Every structure is written in structure tokens, then in C-alpha cells.
């Protein structure tokens, strides 16, 4: 697949031009054709074509590189391709034919003339960047749109038929809570993940592949060694659980009483996190003792297992208790601690605070413009109730900064203006051309960068959420009202208290 990606993204390479001239001529790589007596390289490129179809899509710039009828370029349609109306293929060939390059707008009449209604809506929902940037092929399986072998492997394994040897990951398990547990060794956390996903070499699993292996539990020599038996229901392991500080009684008659069920309950609420950490230490000690029984002919001793588990638990508990008192340092170069309160812009400047919010199938932007005295000059709440994309939080933060630029240019074209938001990531994307940003917000970030470079009166800045409270509250109010509003030299009632508080704090700080 990596070779196929290079074939698609490096058309000027000699080997790509050679294969194109020999096998494609005027056709597209995506055209389904069978060839005989072809080279092994071309055969391998064709073999992965069906898998590539679901993972690549063009990001429209000028549209000169994208073939309308064969290339994937509409992300809101199946296979990212269009079929069009009868006779449309004779009118248009490249996506550039559908774009007015001067105004950077879609030719709406032509789109409706050539495509079905649902295809036309999908095409017109593609946002065009304001500058004539080059088209770019995106790999949709990574946030940045750049190909990686890891993401390709993940895609292929997910699409492959399931097998008994593949780990079964339950998405309903509280994995996030597990990884966020403090005061526990990372190797113990990873071991619990392996246990829950049935990814450790127990005898019952090994016996599936090697018939000569005895699948009996090495501790009780009665039942098959499965995950729930070894770590929970073996008669000697039950003594460990009952004698531990948890005091767990294992109900042998309840088939739903599994190790996954227990840990899922412990990780569902913070009040039982300590029990979860103790449970992790116990299964870790059980596994270590089990291996000593198998490889060193050691006699399993429940008391020693409990002692070892307490040692593992207390060792990292002490580290967790000490760490909060250590001084916190910021390792990110150039990151300045954001102010806890809103600060007035320099004399002669205007500051526009921006923030985004999300609702059901909707994204909202809140904008608040103030001068050096804290006086509100303009406010906007922009509501989009037809949002159907992905990564709404990312999209709304990006759109908030773009709308902030639009407000500055429309209302204060000759005044130095600071666009201020609480998304540090978005500020970095806009201000640093070397950063690679997510492909879903490609056109928005490109427009923000273009506007920032086009005027020396505009700048962007990051602040804390508390210092951006006015824009945040305005956006959240618009989520509830589901309406867009604009205010000039008046303060919306919903943020009047915040604006007053910000002005008072800014003068006190000064």
C-alpha cells in the first residue's frame, strides 16, 4: 500500500511515469481493468486498489489535478465518487471546471445541471480555500492526511475476517479510566489490558495451536486454564481474592461474574479506583506466581501472593502521593503561561475573543470585540444547525478563529487587532507554517494563515479558558437558543456580568 500511495502522490517520478505510460495511458488508476502478463509491481499495485479506495480522497484546491468521474474527491458520498446525470461527462472533466477561480466559489448552476440533488448538495458543502492552493491527495486514516504504514496495517486488520487468535477488544470497557489511573505501574496497566483482551499465553490458548500442550490449570490441575479461571475462579486463587484487602467473594454459580465485569465496575466510578489498582496488583502477582509454578516447580502460596500484591500496590501508591507536591514544569518550548484573567489590549488596539461550542448536529462560534478600556464594540454568535461532519470540536475552534479574522477585517480594517482564543493547538496551527494540521480543517487553517500574512495589523494569541469566558459563554448561549445574532456597541444580556468582571479585573491587574 505504501508503494501505491507513492504511485498516486509522486506522478513526476520516473517509475510512475513508466508504469502510467505502459498500463494506464489515458485511463485512471481507479478504473477497474484486468491485465495479463503484467509486471509483479503493477500486479501488486492493482491488488491493493480496492483497499485504497476507502482510505484516500482529494482535498480540493484549484481542482486542476482532480478528474471528476474517476477520482475520489467528495468526502460526503460513498466511495467519495460521483455518478452525475446523463450527458454530464461530455460537459465537464476536471473539478476546476466547476469552480470560478476568480471568486473561489462553486459554479452553483453548473453543479445542479450536472449532478443529482444529493450529489450537488455534497459537492457544494465542500469548503473551498480563498487562495488558489494546489489539490492534495489525503490519506483519511490519519488525522494529518499523511500516509503511515501503521494506519494501513490497522485498516487491513480491521477489515480482515476475525479469528480466534486475534485479541478481542471490548469498546464498552472503561479503557480511558484504566490508562488515567495514577499510582500504578504502567507495565501493570498494560498487563491488565492484555488480560482483558485475552492476549496472554495461557494453556487453553496455546493448546489451540499445539495439540500436545495440556490445557489444565497448573494451580488446581482440574479445569482448563482460561483467563477467568486462572485469575478469578480457580479454587486457590479465590483464597487470594478473599484474603486480600478487597475481601472479594467469587460467586462460582454466576457466569456473568467475570474479571472484565469486576474491573469494569471498579473503573466506572472514581470512588472505587483504589480497588481497581489493588486488583491490578493482585492479578500481576497471580501471574508471576503462576509462572514460578510452571517453570520453577514452585508451590503456590496465597499468603505470599497477597504480600507481593500489597508491595506492588504500596510501592507506586507512595510515588503517586509524592508527585502532586513536586513543582510543575512546562516542557513545551516557547509556551507562556496564559493569564488567569482577561487583559486589556494595548492602547490603540482591539482584542477579539473567540470560542466555539458544539450541540446536537450543530457547531457555534462566539465573538466578543473590546477596546483598551474593556468597552464592547461588537459581538457575534454564529449558529450552524446543519453540521454533519466529524471532529466537531476541532472544526468549531478553527472556524471561531476564521470568523474572528472576518470580524476584524469587516469592522476594524485599519486598527491593530488581536484574535484571542483558548485553543493553544489552533493558535500554533495558524501562526506556525511548519506545523502539520489535521486534514479536516485544511481549508480553514489555510485561510487563517493567508489572512494573517496579508495584514501586519492582525495577530493571534492564546489565553486560558477563564480569560476567554465571555466568548465561551456567548457560544454556549447560542447552542441553547439555536440562533445567530450580532450586536454593535451593546452588550448581550447573557455576558454582561462577565464583561463587567473582566473590565474590573483588568484594571486591578494594571
UniProtKB/TrEMBL annotation:
Residues 353-477 form the RNase H type-1 domain. GO terms for molecular function: nucleic acid binding; RNA-directed DNA polymerase activity; RNA-DNA hybrid ribonuclease activity. Residues 147-241 form the Reverse transcriptase zinc-binding domain. The keyword Nucleotidyltransferase applies. InterPro entries: RNase_H-like, RNase_H-like_dom_plant, RNaseH-like_sf, RNaseH_domain, RNaseH_sf, RVT-Znf. The keyword Transferase applies. Keywords: Nucleotidyltransferase, RNA-directed DNA polymerase, Transferase. Pfam families: RVT_3, zf-RVT. This is Reverse transcriptase zinc-binding domain.
Amino acid at each position: 500500500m505504501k508503494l501505491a500511495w507513492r504511485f498516486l502522490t509522486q506522478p513526476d517520478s520516473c517509475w510512475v511515469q513508466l508504469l502510467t505510460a505502459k498500463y494506464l495511458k489515458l485511463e485512471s488508476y481507479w478504473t477497474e481493468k484486468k491485465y495479463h502478463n503484467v509486471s509483479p509491481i503493477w500486479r501488486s499495485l492493482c491488488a491493493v486498489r480496492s483497499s485504497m479506495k476507502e482510505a484516500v480522497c482529494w482535498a480540493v484546491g484549484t481542482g486542476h489535478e482532480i478528474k471528476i468521474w474517476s477520482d475520489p474527491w467528495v468526502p460526503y458520498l460513498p466511495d467519495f465518487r460521483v455518478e452525475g446525470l446523463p450527458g454530464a461527462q461530455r460537459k465537464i472533466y476536471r473539478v476546476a471546471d466547476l469552480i470560478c477561480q476568480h471568486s473561489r466559489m462553486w459554479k452553483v448552476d453548473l453543479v445542479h445541471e450536472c449532478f443529482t440533488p444529493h450529489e450537488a448538495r455534497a459537492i457544494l458543502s465542500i469548503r473551498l480555500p480563498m487562495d488558489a492552493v494546489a489539490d492534495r491527495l489525503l490519506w483519511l486514516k490519519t488525522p494529518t492526511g499523511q500516509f503511515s504504514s501503521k494506519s494501513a496495517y490497522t485498516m487491513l486488520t480491521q477489515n480482515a475476517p476475525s479469528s480466534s487468535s486475534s485479541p478481542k477488544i471490548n469498546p464498552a470497557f472503561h479503557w480511558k479510566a484504566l490508562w488515567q489511573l495514577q499510582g500504578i505501574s504502567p507495565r501493570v496497566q498494560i498487563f491488565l489490558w492484555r488480560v482483558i483482551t485475552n492476549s496472554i499465553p495461557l494453556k487453553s490458548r496455546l493448546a489451540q495451536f499445539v495439540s500436545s500442550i495440556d490445557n489444565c490449570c497448573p494451580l488446581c490441575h482440574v479445569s482448563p486454564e482460561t483467563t477467568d479461571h486462572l485469575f478469578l475462579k480457580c479454587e486457590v486463587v479465590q483464597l487470594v481474592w478473599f484474603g486480600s484487602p478487597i475481601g472479594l467473594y467469587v460467586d462460582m454459580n454466576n457466569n456473568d461474574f467475570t474479571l472484565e465485569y469486576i474491573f469494569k465496575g471498579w473503573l466506572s466510578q472514581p470512588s472505587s479506583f483504589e480497588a481497581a489498582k489493588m486488583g491490578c496488583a493482585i492479578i500481576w502477582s497471580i501471574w508471576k506466581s503462576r509462572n514460578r509454578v510452571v517453570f520453577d516447580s514452585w508451590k503456590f502460596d496465597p499468603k505470599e501472593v497477597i504480600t507481593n500484591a500489597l508491595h506492588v500496590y504500596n510501592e507506586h501508591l507512595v510515588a503517586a502521593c509524592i508527585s502532586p507536591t513536586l513543582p510543575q514544569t512546562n516542557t513545551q518550548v516557547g509556551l507562556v503561561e496564559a493569564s488567569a484573567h482577561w487583559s486589556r489590549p494595548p492602547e490603540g488596539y482591539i482584542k477579539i475573543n473567540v470560542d466555539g461550542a458544539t450541540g446536537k448536529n450543530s457547531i457555534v462560534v462566539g465573538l466578543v470585540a473590546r477596546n483598551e478600556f474593556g468597552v464592547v464594540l461588537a459581538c457575534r454568535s454564529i449558529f450552524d444547525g446543519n453540521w454533519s461532519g466529524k471532529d466537531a470540536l476541532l472544526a468549531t475552534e478553527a472556524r471561531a478563529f476564521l470568523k474572528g479574522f472576518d470580524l476584524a477585517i469587516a469592522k476594524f480594517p485599519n486598527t491593530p487587532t488581536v484574535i484571542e482564543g483558548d485553543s493553544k493547538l489552533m493558535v500554533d496551527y495558524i501562526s506556525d507554517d511548519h506545523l502539520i494540521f489535521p486534514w479536516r480543517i485544511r481549508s480553514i487553517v489555510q485561510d487563517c494563515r493567508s489572512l494573517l500574512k496579508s495584514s501586519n495589523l492582525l495577530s493571534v494569541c492564546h489565553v486560558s479558558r477563564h480569560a476567554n469566558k465571555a466568548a465561551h459563554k456567548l457560544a454556549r448561549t447560542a447552542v441553547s437558543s439555536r440562533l445567530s445574532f450580532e450586536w454593535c456597541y451593546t452588550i448581550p444580556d447573557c455576558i454582561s456580568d462577565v464583561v463587567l468582571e473582566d473590565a474590573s479585573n483588568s484594571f486591578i491587574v494594571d
